[in-house]
Amino acid sequence: MQMKIPDPVLNALSALPLAEVHFFDSIDSTNTHCLNWASEGAGDLSLAIADHQSAGRGRADRKWVTNPGTALAFSLILRPRESDPSHLSFFSPLGALAIRAALERLYDLAPEIKWPNDVLITRKKLSGILVENVWEGPILKAIVIGIGINITRAALPPEAQLLFPATCVESEVGRPVARWELLAEVLAQMMPLRDRMGSHEFFEEWSSHLAFKGERVCISGNLRSDLTGRLVGIDPDGDLLIETEDAGCEKVKVGDVRLRAV
Ligand code: BT5
User: Fold this and answer.
1) How many Å lie between the centroid of ligand 1 and the Cα of residue 117?
2) Which residue numbers in the chain have pLDDT < 50?
3) In this structure, are 7 and 98 located in the same domain?
4) Quick count: other Cβ atoms within 10 Å of Cβ 256?
5) Which of 7, 142, 227, 235 could join 38 in a cystine, given CB atoms 3.0 to 4.6 angstroms apart?
6) Rounded to the nearest 5°, which phi and psi values hold at 67?
């Protein structure tokens, strides 16, 4: 249910140029809410936050668990700029780089970005990003960046439900953290990064924090068969480059792909 924005949230967000904020004690999914809200005319930088999601979504209909009082779950609506339709694959890294920078600045952590959409610390998933778009025919009307960040241990789903090991900010920092301060920092980091999206600098920052670089990985998903090889990096389109023993360097496009170390 939507409720009055709690004071600590309002205070944390007060310096940000947000259009409007919706706060829910519980909702199915902040991304679903923002897709509808964007279709109804929400402005650039409208934000939905939930304390609990009953049907949080990952990619390809996977579930994202958000237990009450344990995590950050929020979605930001961006209205497209001219170059955005050709940059759609950069919105996930935009979110990931903002989370990475915020965790480094506030807690001195060293997160890595697992292509295409996860933030890892010590090789465990701390945060996931789901980017969805609103189209009117061929015209891109809005981009929704949905972010989930585990704050306390109680945020973590049971291990049996995990495709990849998970962690939370408090386990990595070793003390309680103020989650609304982290929310505000992630959003603050995202604003200037958005202006640099697609630039050489943006690409370098993404590339230099890419997890598993130089290591052997296996990619599975929307390919005919699994692809195993050395992760070389990303190309200027954001595609992943994998060097295989027999076929040389292969490109993997963003889609429903899963990456794991071998
Ligand atoms: C993601 O998908 O990682 C994207 C998650 C995006 C969540 C945010 S929360 C706010 C907004 N509203 C939404 O409804 N969604 C966005 P994917 O790469 O497909 O990973 C999903 C997988 O992560 C699941 O199948 C689980 O294995 C695992 N998982 C689920 N909940 C998790 C959690 N809290 N922490 C770590 N792993 C989790």
Assistant:
1) 10
2) none
3) yes
4) 12
5) 142
6) -80, 145
65 lines ligand 1 (CB under 6 A): yes
* Ligand 1 atom showing the smallest separation from residue 29 Cα: 14
111: domain CATH number? 3.30.930.10
User: Whole-structure pTM over 0.85, yes or no?
Assistant: yes
CA distance 96 to 99: 5
Mutation pick for ligand 1 pocket among 28, 30, 32, 64 (CB with most ligand atoms within 8 Å): 64
d(CA 30, CA 57): 9
pLDDT tens column, 126-140: 999 999 999 999 999
Ligand 1 within 6 A of CB of 29: yes
Separation of 153 CA from ligand 1 center, angstroms?
Answer: 15
The dihedral over CA atoms of 181, 186, 188, 191, expressed in degrees to the nearest 10, equals -160
Q: What digits encode the pLDDT tens for the residues 73-98?
A: 999 999 999 989 988 999 999 999 99
Domain span including residue 171 = 2-208
90 close to 239: Cβ distance less than 8 angstroms: no
224: CATH: 2.30.30.100
Instruction: Decide: 78 and 52 in contact? Cβ < 8 Å.
Output: no
Residues 104 and 139 occupy one common structural domain: yes
Question: Which structure tokens are listed for 134?
Answer: 């609103």
